Automatic annotation (TrEMBL), chain A:
It comes from the Bacteria. This is Gluconate 2-dehydrogenase subunit 3 family protein. It comes from Hymenobacter perfusus. InterPro entries: Gluconate_2DH_su3.
From TrEMBL, chain B:
Pfam families: GMC_oxred_C (PF05199), GMC_oxred_N (PF00732). Belongs to the GMC oxidoreductase family. This is GMC family oxidoreductase. The keyword Flavoprotein applies.
Length: 198, 560
């Protein structure tokens, strides 16, 4: 699969190829403080959320991973929604409490330890069960496992690929659109579009 | 009260009250920020001011349903006020080329999605702000075909519209010229049109060219699509010159150039230049009537204040969820039993693939190429038909849809997303039959205003399922012929249609063929809620055509 050079989006953000509104949105994510204090989750549940997110988006290539949990905590604190939810699901705050609790229950059922105490391989086994809709735990009687995993995965994915470092990773520079894109046919790159690293 | 119990149970540990509505949050924030203008605590709450100024028409909603008629009514010399629940923004300064930052374009109050195929709302199909959902529409503007309006006649299924395509054609022509539609002339699937498109088609991007090449091999006719985005500078009355599209590919998250013909850069400035007043951040809660059942006023919340606006006529253009919701909450126009019924959503299945070519799917108009060869497929085992379109896509939208379908996580997820620049898609836009099992109701769960959240039931019926199977097979063939690897399909449903249908009789329809409510003498409804059937084309152009037609019918009745 393609790899792209690092630093592309960060360099473009310093140029007039990006509008001020676009720059503000992306730099806010890039420069988010590392020491986020959760407002919605208690400290233990927040660490559990971070641990699960770290297996869904493993980032061994980064010294400091793109943090995906703060945006979840912030959204649940604010109580904002994205316009809809599955009728079969409880409200988002309750869904996260039940779902994260259910992940711990699944870990206990399979390995007799909470999720945080497991090795990375064991954690992946638990998430694999969740993804397959086969995780054990009483919370799943109140929460449809497949819908929770879909919603949770989707929210983490949105937070990850909205981040400038993730956009560098996939070679996306659509934010640098001030001059427009006069060449839209395949295999015709503008100078500011990164070429793949062989 | 049971409702309150549900509310309490729903929020186990509210850090703040359960304000899930960003709009209300911003209203409350505004309110707190301007205490000086608020009455002091000592004052008893005053009765609602009852201003004597009465306008001819209030229009609720400024999207494709409300904006064209607002302009038409203002140009006829009427005193008109539009109430828009969302904010007014300046796209040139306020819009970021960033999907997440643009979430303010969407109607993000929570709706409950039920049924076997729960429909996604928010960014999938529901907008807010001055311009409504046209702020985020893809700007596809195909015309409906003659047969789309007479499904029952042709197939014995669904319902016919109460008039034929000839009623819409003059408005299609007018709107195509007013908006500056870019498209092919002659139009391959309707070559006898009186007028061609005013502008040449937009350039074809990677997905469009791949689809074009593969369809040519398979004997499927294609054409550059009709898009409401300018392929050249265009003069617009009320606003001046609009600049050409620069292929930003960002239509679904807001055009910052005015090249896309959203209502805020077309019909709304035209309306304002003729004296229409547009009030943003105005969330309608009540529709007041007199003893005879005539609408006399509309009550709305704006910046923490409750305001009443008297009117002689009301045009409800809030979309196929908020329109029936307002009718239900106000117990208005309910005699037919059709409000909320026959909710429809277009089958919008997508097929994605990975190509050797370097595509960069963020570039170019997302929907560049079209085929309507599947409008009435010869080998169909279903009623109606669909059209095929190529699709470009932004990374966050693509990634979130992809994980919903493929459930990739861990390293395979990151690996797959590295192929984003080599991704291209095609999708369909298919007709949907009205069905009794698909409907909207008010739930027991309350939103931040204390109003019931809408619950929408949608299950793809046999006809939609057969159409999906037919379409998936063709799209996979096209993408295989185009050289795609790792092909996958995403079943989805787009657009929100039905729920206040138009018809010939008040026994089975909410509005008559002119858009006027059967039950209420001075209420008109114009948006996608009045569609009796879904049509096999993207709805925006037809909503606008209905809007102008509704205004003309109203004005003719007024002058009679």
């Amino acid at each position: 699969m393609p790899h792209y050079p690092e630093g592309t989006v960060r360099a473009l953000l310093q140029t007039e190829l990006v509008t001020p509104a676009t720059r503000a949105a992306l730099e806010a994510r890039l420069n988010a403080p590392a020491d986020y204090t959760p407002q919605f989750f208690d400290a233990d549940t927040y660490q559990l959320l971070r641990a699960v997110a770290a297996r869904i988006f493993p980032q061994p290539d980064r010294e400091k991973p793109v943090e995906l949990a703060p945006a979840v905590d912030k959204r649940l604190t604010d109580g904002t929604a994205d316009g809809w939810r599955y009728d079969a699901m409880p409200p988002d705050r309750e869904a996260y409490r039940l779902g994260l609790g259910g992940i711990n229950q699944a870990a206990e059922a399979q390995f007799q330890q909470p999720f945080m105490a497991l090795s990375a391989e064991q954690q992946d086994a638990v998430i694999g069960q969740l993804a397959a809709g086969e995780a054990a735990g009483q919370n799943w009687q109140q929460l449809p496992q497949d819908r929770f995993f879909e919603e949770f995965l989707s929210e983490l994915t949105e937070n990850y690929y909205a981040h400038p470092l993730a956009q560098e990773e996939i070679g996306y520079v659509g934010m640098a659109d001030v001059p427009g894109w006069p060449h839209v046919t395949p295999n015709t790159l503008e100078p500011r579009e990164p070429e793949e690293v062989k | 009260m049971p409702d309150e119990e549900v509310l309490e149970e729903g929020v186990l540990n509210p850090v703040q009250p359960e304000i899930q509505a960003p709009l209300l949050q911003s209203l409350l924030a505004d309110n707190e920020a301007t205490p000086a203008t608020e009455p002091t605590g000592e004052e008893a709450p005053n009765p609602l001011p009852d201003p004597t100024d009465e306008v001819d028409c209030v229009v609720i909603g400024t999207g494709a349903g409300g904006a064209p008629l607002l302009a038409r009514l203002a140009m006829a010399g009427l005193k008109v006020v539009a109430l828009e629940a969302g904010p007014r923004r300046d796209p040139t300064k306020d819009y970021a080329t960033d999907e997440k930052a643009q979430s303010f374009l969407f109607w993000n109050d929570e709706r409950l999605s039920a049924g076997q195929n729960p429909v996604a709302f928010g960014k999938n199909n529901s907008g807010t702000g001055v311009g409504g959902s046209t702020l985020h529409y893809t700007a596809y503007t195909p015309r409906a075909h003659r047969g789309d309006l007479k499904l029952h006649t042709d197939f014995g299924q669904g319902v016919d519209w109460p008039f034929g395509i000839e009623e819409l054609e003059p408005y299609y022509e007018e709107i195509e010229y007013f908006l500056g539609i870019s498209g092919p002339t002659p139009y391959p699937w309707d070559p006898t049109r009186r007028k061609g498109y005013p502008l040449a088609p937009l350039p074809l991007n990677g997905a469009a060219l791949l689809m074009q090449r593969a369809c040519a091999q398979l004997g499927i006719q294609t054409s550059p699509a009709a898009n409401a985005a300018l392929s050249a500078r265009y003069y617009q009355e009320g606003i001046g010159w609009r600049e050409a599209c620069t292929n930003r590919g960002f239509c679904q998250a807001g055009c910052n150039r005015g090249a896309k013909a959203s209502m805020d850069v077309t019909f709304l400035p035209l309306a304002e230049s003729y004296g229409a007043e547009i009030r943003a951040d105005a969330y309608v809660t009540e529709i007041e009537r007199d003893a005879s059942g005539r609408v006399v006023a509309v009550v709305y919340e704006q910046h923490g204040h409750t305001v009443r606006q008297r009117c002689r006529h009301l045009f409800l253009c809030a979309g196929a969820v908020e329109t029936p919701r307002l009718l239900m909450l106000n117990e208005l126009a309910l005699n037919s039993g059709q409000v909320g019924k026959h909710f429809m959503a277009h089958p919008g299945m997508q097929v994605w693939g990975t190509f050797d070519e370097d595509i960069r799917p963020y570039k170019g108009i997302p929907g560049g190429l079209i085929s309507e060869d599947t409008h009435r497929p010869k080998d169909a085992d279903f009623a109606g038909g669909y059209l095929l379109q190529s699709i470009g896509v932004m990374p966050v939208t693509f990634a979130t849809q992809m994980v919903r379908q493929r459930k990739l996580w861990g390293q395979p997820l990151r690996d797959y997303m590295r192929t984003y620049n080599h991704t291209a898609g095609i999708n369909i836009l298919g007709d949907c039959m009205p069905h009794a099992a698909n409907y909207m109701e008010l739930s027991d769960e309350k939103d931040a205003r204390g109003l019931p959240k809408p619950r929408l039931h949608f299950t793809a019926q046999e006809n939609e399922q057969r159409m999906n199977r037919h379409a998936e097979k063709i799209m996979r063939q096209i993408w295989e012929a185009a050289g795609a690897k790792d092909i996958w399909a995403f079943e989805r449903y787009a657009h929100v249609i039905g729920t206040a249908r138009m018809g010939l009789s008040g026994d089975d329809a909410v509005v008559n063929p002119d858009g006027k409510a059967f039950d209420v003498p001075n209420l008109y409804i114009c948006d996608n809620s009045v569609f009796p059937s879904a049509l096999s084309v993207n709805p925006a152009l037809t909503i606008m055509a209905l809007s102008l037609r509704t205004a003309d019918k109203f004005l003719a009745a007024l002058r009679a």
